[in-house]
Amino acid sequence: MSDSMISKSNETLSKQVSDETDDFGLPLRKKPRTMVKLMDDQVDVIRMGQYKLRDYQKYLFNEAKKENIIICLPTGSGKTLIAFCLIRHMFEQTIGDYPSIAKRTFFLAPNRALITQQYETAKILLPGKITMITGDQNPDDFSSNDWMKTLKNFQLFFVTPAILYDIL
Fold this sequence. Notes:
Helix content: 40-55%
Structural class: alpha/beta
Distance between the termini: 39 Å
């Protein structure tokens, strides 16, 4: 990704910042459908350093676009990069009223440290309303209405498998 494209993306993103805040006091960023187009124009490149997808990552990304797959690769081989590209690719499906129109995306990691790390990276790289739910927020105490409100307010969730299980 060229520096000019990165600058243009950052400029567009900064124009989308709102004074409104979510339930946790974090600023909401408005992300119109044009952001999907802007991100797609960057094709197979995503800023994490300035990595491009390797051939095997492109292959797995394309397979994941066709059907559900499980990717099992060694540490450091780019599983997260593939996942973020797929999340970006499917972003438009998360736009609109939930649950009647829009879908929601859940990113799972086995522990809070990994969830936090991936959440911080996603906030920089991905469009949409993104949240992280941990045990600190006492999700066991959320009512059905609390969960529905949270699902309506966010498009991408970073959680542990245990928290997703509680939601279901």
